[in-house]
């Protein structure tokens, strides 16, 4: 101990500033030791949200059905099902529900009296696994003292019943009941989820990626492992022209312009004007947007027609920009994606892998057969405007900075390895070495780490100019490169799906990771390569939807791998048969919550509709997991050892106590 203190004397002196006396250091050791024996906090894992903001926010508000389960346990048969449903709705949407109650209740004060007592019972239950200090820090300042008194006074104590009732009656008489109800509902939501892990793909397809990020901006504890769609938007915000085109193309493909136009203020009028001028005589049948019945009702024929024109216009520019980046980086081996150069303007065919294929249509007015990847002057002007819109969108840049500050390519948390898509593997399952823009080859853990550093360098202005340009270009490879950890397929067959009739060229061959991931030994080797320790370790992924309706199991490799992309995005619902997963990791173990489709926030508030969810036990622990069993526990144990060293230093005169 003495030798350690002498070695770390500067650190001990800094620690003494926070704990200047033996009493202060001892008290903190007692506090931390007690925390180690609390049940671990509940973690929620979500993946592939794809802009479905209403469903995402409802899942957080109802804690993947956990709040409803606790309400049922607390009140059992003492409340009718309708009353329990109303209480849950109030907890999820307190402001909106209170408006309805005020207009319908004859005696609002009496309703508030009953409801406040009920909320106290729920709050006592959800706060039971936390220290008083942590609960106190989660309380809003205006009601902190009042809620603490309600939480820690037992109403079954005769001497305290009148005291508690008087607190609630005074809250009502001072016209603070509504504000207090809102505060308590928000605290219940917050304490029901200790930490949130998002395994990528907040963006694309759905209408509210920007609303999800607005919500996360104020969320208490979250992180993200970037997905391919997130990185695509990062590339667009950094100025990668091909990424900009892809972002716009996907928005038009799913008739979803809210995020672009309403969320980030991207001006698409120049694209609309260009598309109408250039493709006015083109049916653009391949580019009619994918819409559900609700969207079809919102879109008249003129809007659908204009969307299809814009969709084709930006797609052709995308193919050109992708080819230009591929030409700048032959080491990426993406030349096969330059299919504009493979067009045969005489036969009106396209040559792929040595074979001529018939086209669905052959109208390419902006493609020069002699120089197919060159932009026309009008296309150059259009891209200049779009580039400017993305670069000056303050809200987009702010949201991308959020992703950078809360995210990375992978994370190791409580013996679980989290990443969005894949680890490049060789055919035999060994880690594959992949060339990065810095000129070096990496595999496994170092590959993901260095990829993350390259992504960050695209947004760091002190990065050397050439390195920064390469980093910005690299976003395209991350999006669709065959050895990208976010893609890991033979190709992205976008051009083929639009233009080639023969579906044999539509196939996107999956990388070896997807072929081998159900092999337990392969998962063990990956976990070993990432230094993931512990007897109950897992890999958790998203990216590839799980086809539940075809009998596919999201739990693979004898429980070592969990794939939690259940199709939050509405276009995936028919494909997967469900509407998303939440993986819940609590003190008893893992549960996979399978969600049905969410109707709307309006329905949830007005009619008390909730997401119907089915819980599947994945792995249960024989002993309840404590904070001491988690990564936080490792940190706290180290802090305890440091504080014990400080006590030794005080008691042996190596550091003097400070007078307070």
Explain what you see.
- The protein is of the alpha/beta class and 660 residues long.
- It contains 29 helices and 17 strands.
- Strands 7-3-2-1-15-16-17 form a seven-stranded mixed beta sheet.
- β13 and β14 form a beta hairpin.
- The chain is globular and about 95 Å long.
- The two termini are 27 Å apart.
- The model has no long low-confidence stretch (mean pLDDT 91).
Attribute tags:
5-stranded mixed sheet; 660 residues; 7-stranded mixed sheet
Secondary structure blueprint with pairings:
Layout: H1 2-7, H2 9-18, H3 22-35, E1 43-46, H4 53-61, H5 66-75, H6 81-92, H7 94-104, H8 108-126, H9 132-138, H10 144-152, H11 158-173, H12 177-192, E2 195-198, H13 209-216, E3 222-225, H14 228-238, H15 241-253, H16 258-263, H17 269-278, H18 293-298, H19 301-328, E4 343-344, E5 349-352, E6 355-358, H20 377-392, H21 394-406, E7 407-408, E8 410-413, E9 416-419, E10 434-435, E11 441-442, H22 444-457, H23 465-480, H24 494-499, H25 512-516, H26 520-529, E12 538-541, E13 555-556, E14 561-563, H27 573-576, E15 581-586, E16 589-595, H28 601-607, E17 613-620, H29 631-651
Parallel strand pairs: 1-2, 2-3, 3-7, 9-12, 12-14
Antiparallel strand pairs: 1-15, 4-5, 5-6, 8-9, 10-11, 13-14, 15-16, 16-17
């Amino acid at each position: 101990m003495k030798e350690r203190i002498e070695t770390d004397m500067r650190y001990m002196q800094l620690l003494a500033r926070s704990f200047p006396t033996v009493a202060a250091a001892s008290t903190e050791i007692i506090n931390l030791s007690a925390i180690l024996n609390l049940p671990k906090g509940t973690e929620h894992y979500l993946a592939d949200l794809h802009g479905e903001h209403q469903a995402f926010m409802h899942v957080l508000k109802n804690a993947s059905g956990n709040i409803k389960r606790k309400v049922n346990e607390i009140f059992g048969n003492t409340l009718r099902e309708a009353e329990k449903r109303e209480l849950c709705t109030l907890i999820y949407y307190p402001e909106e529900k209170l408006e309805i109650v005020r207009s319908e209740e004859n005696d609002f004060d009496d309703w508030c009296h009953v409801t406040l007592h009920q909320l106290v019972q729920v709050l006592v239950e959800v706060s039971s696994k936390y220290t008083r200090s942590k609960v106190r820090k989660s309380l809003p300042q205006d009601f902190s003292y009042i809620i603490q008194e309600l939480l820690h006074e037992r109403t079954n104590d005769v001497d305290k019943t009148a005291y508690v009732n008087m607190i609630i009656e005074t809250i009502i008489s001072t016209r603070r009941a509504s504000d207090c109800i809102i505060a308590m509902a928000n605290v219940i939501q917050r304490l029901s989820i200790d930490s949130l892990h998002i395994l990528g793909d907040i963006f694309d397809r759905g209408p509210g990626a920007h609303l999800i990020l607005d919500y996360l901006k104020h969320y208490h504890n979250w992180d993200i492992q970037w997905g391919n769609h997130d990185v695509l938007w990062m590339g667009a915000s950094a100025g990668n022209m091909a990424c900009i085109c892809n972002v716009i193309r996907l928005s038009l493909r799913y008739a979803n312009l809210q995020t672009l136009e309403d969320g980030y203020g991207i001006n698409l009028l120049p694209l609309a004007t260009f598309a109408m001028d250039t493709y006015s005589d083109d049916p653009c049948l391949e580019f009619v947007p994918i819409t559900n019945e609700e969207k079809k009702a919102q879109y008249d024929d003129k809007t659908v027609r204009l969307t299809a024109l814009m969709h084709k216009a930006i797609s052709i520019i995308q193919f050109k920009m992708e080819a230009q980046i591929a030409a700048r980086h032959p080491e990426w081996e993406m030349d096969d994606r330059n299919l504009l150069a493979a067009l045969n303007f005489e036969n009106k065919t396209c040559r792929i892998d040595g074979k001529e294929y018939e086209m669905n249509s052959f109208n390419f007015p902006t493609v020069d057969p002699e120089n197919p990847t060159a932009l026309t002057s009008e296309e150059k002007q259009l891209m200049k405007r779009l580039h400017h819109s993305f670069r000056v969108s303050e809200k987009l840049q702010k949201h991308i900075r959020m992703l950078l500050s809360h995210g990375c390519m992978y994370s190791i948390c409580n013996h679980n390895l989290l990443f969005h898509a894949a680890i490049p593997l060789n055919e035999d399952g060994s880690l594959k070495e992949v060339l990065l823009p810095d000129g070096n080859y990496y595999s496994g853990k170092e590959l993901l780490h260095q990829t993350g550093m390259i992504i960050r360098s695209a947004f760091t202005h002190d990065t050397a100019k050439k390195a920064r340009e390469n980093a910005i270009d690299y976003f395209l490879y991350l999006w669709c490169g065959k050895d990208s950890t976010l893609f890991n397929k033979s190709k992205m067959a976008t051009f083929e799906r639009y233009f080639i009739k023969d579906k044999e060229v539509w196939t996107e061959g999956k990388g070896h990771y997807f072929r081998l991931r159900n092999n337990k030994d392969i998962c063990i080797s990956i976990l070993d390569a990432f230094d993931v320790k512990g007897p109950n370790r897992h890999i958790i992924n998203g990216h590839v939807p799980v086809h539940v309706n075809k009998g596919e199991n999201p739990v693979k490799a004898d429980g070592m791998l969990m794939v939690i992309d259940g199709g939050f995005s509405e276009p995936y619902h028919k494909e997967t048969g469900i509407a998303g997963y939440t993986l819940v990791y609590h003190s008893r173990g893992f549960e996979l919550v399978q969600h049905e489709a969410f109707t709307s926030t309006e329905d949830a508030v007005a009619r008390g509709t909730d997401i119907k969810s089915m819980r599947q036990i994945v792995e249960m622990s024989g002993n309840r997991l404590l904070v001491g069993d988690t990564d936080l526990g490792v940190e706290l144990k180290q802090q305890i050892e440091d504080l014990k060293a400080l006590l030794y230093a005080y008691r042996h005169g190596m550091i003097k106590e400070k007078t307070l």
